[in-house]
C-alpha cells in the first residue's frame, strides 16, 4: 500500500511510492569506473562482480521536490560489509506531464542531470542522463540510464553506464525493502492488550 503524507506537495503525489527508508542488496560491477577506455569498446566493465548492500532514503519537506540519499557498500560472501562503494545525493521533481528531472551528486566527483518519465498507470520511472560534469580526479564517465520500479512493495532498480570507448552496459541493480519506522509502530502499541497471551486468543 502506498501512503501519501498529508503535507506532501501536490505535484509529488505521483512519486509518493518512492518515499521512505529502503534497505536491500544487489549486484555491482567491481571498479567499473576505473577500467581504462579502449577504442572500439574492447574493455568489458562488469566482468568482475560483487554483492552490495544499499540504504536509500527519499524524503520531503513540503516543497516541490524529493530529497534523495543513497549509501552502498561491498559485501563479502557472508553478507558482511567490506568497503564503501558509492554515496549519492540529489533532488527529484516531476511535472504535470509526468516528466521527471533529477539532479545528482556522487562522492566520486561526478554531477549529473537526469531526465525521464513516469510510466502511465504503473509506478515505474525511466531516466537517462542529459548532462554530466566531473572533476579532474573522477573516473571516465559519459552518461547512464536507470530504471526504478515499485514491485510488490519493494523498490527495484537497475543502472547502466558508459565511458569513452565503452558502450552503455549494466553496472548495478538492487532490490530494496521498506525499512520499519519504529515511531509509527510505537503509535499503535496502545491498541495492543496488556496481556500478551490475550493478543493471540
Summary of the model, kept short:
By secondary structure, the protein is mostly beta strands. The protein is built from one helix and ten strands. The chain is 3% helix and 52% strand.
What structural class is derived from the secondary structure elements?
mainly beta
Radius of gyration: 19 Å
Strand order of the largest sheet: 1-2-3-4-5-6-7-8-9-10
In which range does the helix fraction lie? under 10%
Helical stretch count? 1
* Percentage of residues in strands: over 45%
Order of helices and strands: EEEEEEEEEEH
Number of strands: 10
Highlighted features:
1 helix, mainly beta, 3% helix, ten-stranded antiparallel β-barrel
Structure description:
- The chain is mostly beta strands and 201 residues long.
- Helices cover 3% and strands 52% of the residues.
- It is built from one helix and ten strands.
- The protein has one helix spanning 182-188; strands spanning 20-29, 49-59, 66-75, 81-94, 99-106, 110-118, 124-134, 143-151, 154-163, 166-178.
- Strand 9 (154-163) and strand 10 form a beta hairpin.
Q: What's the helix and strand layout?
A:
Elements: E1 20-29, E2 49-59, E3 66-75, E4 81-94, E5 99-106, E6 110-118, E7 124-134, E8 143-151, E9 154-163, E10 166-178, H1 182-188
Antiparallel strand pairs: 1-2, 1-10, 2-3, 3-4, 4-5, 5-6, 6-7, 7-8, 8-9, 9-10
